[in-house]
Amino acid sequence: MPLKLHPPRAGKTPNWSIRGKYLGLSVDRSAGTPKKAVAEKQLKKLELAIERGEYPEKPQERAAQTFLSAAVAYMKAGRSRRYV
Length: 84
Known about the structure:
By secondary structure, this protein is α+β, with helices and mostly antiparallel strands. Helix content is about 30%, strand content about 20%. It has 2 helices and 3 strands. A 3-stranded antiparallel sheet has the order 1-2-3, with helices on one face. A hairpin with a 2-residue loop joins strand 2 and strand 3. The longest helix is centred in the middle third of the chain and has 17 residues. The N and C termini lie far apart (about 60 Å).
C-alpha cells in the first residue's frame, strides 16, 4: 500500500496524516500541517528520505566513556586534581 494523505480527524487534530507502506517501511505519522498542499510536499520529502535510507532516523551512537574524558569532566566540575 503506497503512502497516502489522510484528512484531519474531527475533534482529534487539525493536521493531515501520512499513512501507508513505502519500500517495505510502514509509516503512520502527522504531516504537521493543516494545509493539504504543504502536506503533499511533506509526503514527497518523506518518500525521498525513505529512498535515500534516511528514514527512520537512526539514533546517534554515544562516544565511549574513557578514563581521560571522565578525568576531564571531574576536573571541570571543580574537583581536586590530586586524585586523578
